[in-house]
Amino acid sequence: MTLRLPTRAAPHAVRTVSRTPGVVTNSARVASPGPAENVYYESRGEPLMGQYAVAEVTMNRVASPEFPDSVCAVVRAKGAFSWTYAREPEPPYGFEWRRARAVASSVYGNVEAPLVDGALFYHATYVSPDWATSRRQVALLGRHLFYL
Q1: What's the CATH code of the domain at 82?
Q2: What sign for the dihedral angle of Cα 93, 94, 96, 100?
Q3: Cα dihedral 114→49→62→75 (10° resolution)
Q4: Under 8 Å CB-to-CB from 122, ≥6 apart: which residues?
Q5: Domain range for residue 48?
Q6: 79 in a domain, yes or no?
Q7: CA-CA distance, 106 to 114, in Å (whole number)?
Q8: Distance CA 88, CA 63 (A)
């Protein structure tokens, strides 16, 4: 797995996502900073594979009829991710932000093979949400458990 760090923000664009599970079609460049923000706030400090998996869950949700059909809508959905509860999170910066952008761009561009194919949910290992008992766990990467 090769990580190429961007030197500047990726251009904005639209992405076409099929509602067929596991099928994602690239039609353009990376869209808004939403996917990178999600990687940054949800998994910075995690191993690289864990960050890829967090980004994959975002894209899996876009492809699922259970969730909104755009990346921004998935990331900003009320209660979808813990960092969205904060009034105004601190702006992302530094190496971790550059890495989060590279990870999100790679997953968004379908560059790497999936690590958690089909996973729609995850949580940190130090919490026990009620919904976890009704889902099938498929991976443990870093400090996150991933579920179908």
Answers
A1: 1.10.10.2520
A2: positive
A3: 180
A4: 53, 54, 57, 116, 144, 145, 146, 147
A5: 16-116
A6: yes
A7: 11
A8: 28
CA distances from 144 to 25, 40, 77, 87 (A): 27, 14, 20, 24
Cα–Cα distance for residue pair 111/103, rounded to 1 Å: 10
Q: Note the pLDDT tens digit of each residue in 30-77.
A: 446 888 999 999 999 999 999 999 999 999 999 999 999 898 899 988
Contact 54, 61 (CB under 8 A): no
Cβ atoms of 141 and 43 within 8 Å: the answer is no
Tokens of 143: 């400090």
DSSP helix/strand/coil, 106: helix
- Model confidence, pTM: 0.77
pLDDT band at 82; cut points 50, 70, 90: confident
How many structural domains compose the chain? 1
Give burial (CB, 10 Å; 0-12/13-18/19+) of 59. buried
- In SS3 terms, 35-73 reads as HHHHHHHHHCCCCHHHHHHHHHHHHHHHHCCCCCCCHHH
